[in-house]
Structure formats: C-alpha cells, structure tokens
Design goal:
OB fold (Dihydrolipoamide Acetyltransferase, E2P), 15 helices, alpha+beta, 2 domains, single chain, about 500 residues, five-stranded mixed β-barrel, BirA Bifunctional Protein, domain 2, eight-stranded mixed sheet, about 25% strand, about 35% helix
C-alpha cells in the first residue's frame, strides 16, 4: 500500500492495513507464534490486589483519556478491565498502543491486579505484546450484529459479541459429554458404523446420494446412527452398544430440521421398551442437570420440568383426546381423510394411511404435549422396525415428546426375520409407488436376523433438538456452530 495514498476515513480496513505496515516497520511482528500467559481472565479476577498476572485476550473496548487508557479484555473465560498509564509503560510504548492498537486486536499483558475507585477489578498494565492485528472491526463498531441471517453466516462474530449464543454451544458440548458419560456408566460401549451405505435404512427419510469411483458404486450418506449395523452387532454377541455422530437427510429445513444433525442411537439386548422408558427417566435428567445445572427450563413463557417420572399415553388415546378422532374406526384412506376434513384438519395429498395418521397427529396432538411425556404404541405403518404390540395394528415403542418436540424415538426392536422381510417388502412397494422416504430392502440384514437376534430395545435421540429445548432456543440453528447456509452471491474482492 502506498503510504502517500489518501486514506478514506470510513474505510476501516485501509486504516488498519496502514497501522499493520507501520507496526512491521517499527520491528513489531503483528502475528508472533509464541504467547506467554499464566492465568485466564477468570483466574486473574480471583487474584488479590497487588498480584502480578500475565493474561491474553481480545480488546473489546478501548477508551482513551489523555495519558490514561482503559480497555476491556476478553478471553474464553470472561472479561476484565485493563488500564494503561503512560508514566508506567513509557511514552513510546503508550503512544504505540494508543495509535496503532484497536478494538478487536488480540494482545497479552503483564500487570498488577488492582481495584478501581468504583470497585471494578482491573489490571494495571506493566508490559503489553501484540499477538494478532485485526484488519476488520468488531461488528458493534458501527451497527452491531442483530440481523439473524448475518449472525448465522458469521457465527465467529456472533459468539464474540453475543455471549448467550456462545453459551448454547457450550451447553451442547456438555450434552455430548454427559450423554456419553451416562452410557459408559450404564455399561454401554461406543461403536462406529459406516457413514457411506449402499442401502440406506433405519429410518423413513430422503437420502443424500453420491458415487464411489473406486468401486463404480452409488452410495448414500446415512440417515441414522447405523441402526441395522448395530443390530447386526447384537446378532454378533454385543449386548449394550451406542453410537453418537452425524446423520444426513435430504429434506426440508425449518426450526426443527437440519439436513445434517447429531444424534445418539443405542441398542440394549434382553430389554424391552418398558425398561427403556425407565432408563430414559434416569438418562434425561442426568444430562439436563449436568448440562444446565437445573431440571426446569423456560421457553415461550412455559416452564418445563424434567423431573421424573414422565407421563405416559398411547398414540391412539392421545390423538383421540386432542382431535376427537378414533383412528381405529377409520381403517381406510378415504374414510380417514373424510373425518379429518369434518374435524377441520388438512389430510393433504397423502395416499398412505400411516402418513395420513401421522399428519393428523402432528396437527392435532404433538404441539399440545408440553411436559415430558411418553407417547406409546404408534401404528405399525409408521414403525417398520418395531415389534408388534398386543394389538397388531400398533407397535411396542414410544417417543418422548417435550414442548411439541420429538426428543427421542424408541422401540422394542423387531427380531422376527419373517415379519421383517414382509415389512421390507411393503416398504419396497411404497417406494415403487413414488414414496421417496420409504426404506430400502436390506436382505443381508434379514439374513443376519435369521441367525438369531436377541430381544432388544433401541433408542434414537436428536442432540440438536435436545440442546435447543434445554437452552430455550427456537431453532436448531441456534445450537449449531455453523449451520448450512445457502451461499450468498458477492462480488469478488482482491484483498
């Protein structure tokens, strides 16, 4: 950059580039490799007045008052005020700091802990070192960072400026940690199953498809945590297993759905869905308590309490209670659609009874379930991998519903290979008739079952939804560090 070039005062980047050049010319490396830090800012705040500390962080604010300058320094643990006095650090050092260092820059300081006359814990700087020169200002320099789309596109700035957003990611980390910890304590082992599959199964969803050149083979990204692979492990003698990772579904994006998401699935041999529900009543409160420090959360003015035991109601009774429709009285598509219309519900253009029932449930019932509730015994058309209930129209399973969210999905797993083959054939028929979400046949899995799969229960829990719920977030994007965004067309700039 030509130093004689007239600087546009409104072009912050050009101003900072000029400062960068000046720093380099004065012999200061604006991006050194080594950092000296012996305390975090939180630890420094806990030190006594007079103690010497060396800390590092980002300058969030800078306020000059002649020969005295105050800044707020921020690191991962917190924020502290730091004071620069010209007569302490020297005229040259003070002038360099005030003229060439900006908010957003990252520095380390050595200084003495003291208390201001207003009672604010601070550090009196004895020595400072530039660690990273910021070429762009923090967003609150001019207009803040209030636009929601901009926050998701520039999440690194969102986390810097909005600590409550950063806290949601920290909660997510604790959810993952304590979910694993509970499973380990309960005797489960963590396993890994394929992410690329030739047959994508385990859920009713649209897949992301790609091609493996080495085998000239079409493959799919998995839509769940390897349900059929984990069940193969049950056949192989593993009894308590889980996987926690990413799954992918090529479906719509809304406040409860993302194309890629995190979930845990576990499978437990010689147990059924009733035992699994009791297991939930230990697992869920353990994770909630350890992740946010309490069992009660508030969202949209509603207080939700995760203290067990949780209410239980069958799918049939829940739909009847909230819609006034007894689904047992409408065994065919036409009669079911007719009664839905009469009751004021939209059956849509669906052609399968199971999906129409699910549509009715999601319109009439699920949004009204606020406190943690086990909704049990879903229709067999909706759960092709679950064991039939005593009433063969339904299955032995439950979903844990909280504030209209499906928090978990659990079955007494189907282990009858003949029944499983028939259900796969029904799914294949649906797919041939245009149902893109129908499961694919996995005859290799059926063969594995024919060797004998023990009775078992299994669960899938969406980590994104779980975290959104306990942090009071209205969209999964709030608890996703970098949600997928449609690229924004911008002019290419040579910087």
């Amino acid at each position: 950059m030509n130093n004689q070039e007239e600087i546009n005062i409104n072009d912050e980047r050009k101003i900072r580039l000029k400062k960068l050049a000046d720093l380099s010319k004065s012999g200061i490396n604006p991006y050194p490799a080594q950092t000296i830090r012996n305390f975090t800012l939180k630890q420094a705040l806990e030190k006594s007045d007079g103690e010497i500390v060396t800390v590092a962080g980002r300058i969030m604010t800078k306020r000059e008052m002649g020969k005295l300058t105050f800044c707020h320094l921020q690191d991962e643990t917190g924020k502290i005020q730091i004071a620069f006095k010209q007569d302490i650090i020297g005229t040259d050092s003070y002038k360099l700091f005030t003229k060439k260092i900006d908010s957003g820059d990252i520095i380390s300081i050595e200084g003495e802990r003291f208390m201001t006359h207003k009672g604010e814990k601070s550090i009196l700087v004895k020595k400072w070192t530039l660690l990273s020169k910021a070429l762009l200002p923090l967003p609150d320099k001019f207009h803040g960072l209030n636009d929601e789309e901009l926050r998701y596109r520039k999440r690194y700035l969102d986390f810097l400026i909005n600590p409550e957003q950063k806290e949601k990611i920290l909660v997510r980390s604790r959810v993952l940690r304590y979910m694993r910890e509970f499973m380990y304590q309960a005797g489960f082992i963590e396993i890994e199953t394929p992410v690329l599959e030739t047959i994508s199964s385990g859920a009713m969803a649209k897949t992301f498809n790609t091609h493996l050149n080495a085998y000239d083979l079409d493959v799919h990204l998995r839509i769940c945590m390897g349900e059929l692979w984990q069940k193969r492990l049950l056949v192989g003698g593993f009894e308590k297993i889980f996987e926690l990772g990413r799954a992918f579904r090529n479906e719509g994006v809304d406040h409860q759905h993302n194309p890629e998401f995190t979930m845990i699935e576990y499978y437990w041999a010689f147990a059924d869905s009733k035992e699994n529900a009791k297991f939930h009543e230990k697992l869920i409160p353990f994770v909630v308590q350890n992740s946010i420090g309490k069992l009660e959360v508030e969202i949209d003015g509603k207080k939700i309490n995760f203290t067990p035991p949780y209410a239980r109601i069958s799918f049939h009774d829940a739909v009847l209670k909230h819609s006034g429709i007894d689904i047992n009285d409408y065994p065919d598509v036409d009669s079911l659609k007719k009664i839905m219309i009469e009751k004021g519900y939209d059956p849509g253009n669906l052609t399968e009874r199971g999906k129409i029932i699910d549509n009715l449930y999601k319109q009439s019932t699920r949004p009204k379930i606020i406190q943690p509730t086990f909704v049990t015994d879903y229709p067999i058309e909706l759960k092709p991998l679950a064991k039939k209930a005593a009433d063969p129209r339904y299955t032995e399973m439950f979903q844990l519903i909280v504030n209209g969210f499906e928090l978990s999905n659990s079955y007494t797993e189907l282990n009858d290979p003949i029944d499983q083959r028939q259900r796969f054939e029904e799914q294949a028929k649906n797919k041939s008739q245009g149902d893109e979400e129908a499961m694919e046949n996995d005859w290799d899995f059926v063969e594995a079952m024919e060797h004998g799969m023990p009775p078992a229960t299994g669960t899938g829990i969406g980590i994104d939804r779980f975290t959104a719920l306990i942090t009071g977030s209205h969209t999964l994007r709030e608890v996703t560090a970098f949600p997928l965004m449609k690229p924004k067309k911008t002019e290419t700039e040579d910087k």
